[in-house]
Structures are given as C-alpha cells and as structure tokens.
Amino acid sequence: MKENTGRIDALLNGVESLKMSNSVGSLDGEFGVDGSRAGGGGNSKSVVAAVGFAMMFGAAGLGAMVMKWHMRPKDWEAK
C-alpha cells in the first residue's frame, strides 16, 4: 500500500501548483523578470478608451442639439 503514496503525492503537488498559478497561468506573478506584464491586455484597454471617447463626444453632440432645440424662436414651426 505504500507503493501508491508517491503517485498520490505527485497528484497533490500538481493540484497545489495549479492553485498557486495566477489568472494568466504563471507562477512568477503578474510581471516577468524583464518587467513586462504577463498576458498583455493593452489592446482591450485601448478599445475601452476609444469607446469611452466616442460616448463622450456623442453625449456632447446630443447636448448641443438639445441646447439648440431649446433656444429656437417661439414662433418656429416644423415644416
């Protein structure tokens, strides 16, 4: 029965190292030795920034249209 303890220990060590790994599957942390970030992730940040700027400019344009609508003359009629 002592023959299988090595196999069980090996399985448990594998499970422990899986539990220790981070979200990008690395055991050395978020940053590597050379200072680069593991997994990149820069592309998704630029997409979020671009969408944010587009929403900001869209809201500014919509606000300008509402201001122009409220500042129209009282005798103005839609044709």
TrEMBL record:
Membrane-spanning residues: 47-67
Keywords: Membrane, Transmembrane, Transmembrane helix
Domain of life: Eukaryota
Protein name in UniProt: Di-glucose binding within endoplasmic reticulum
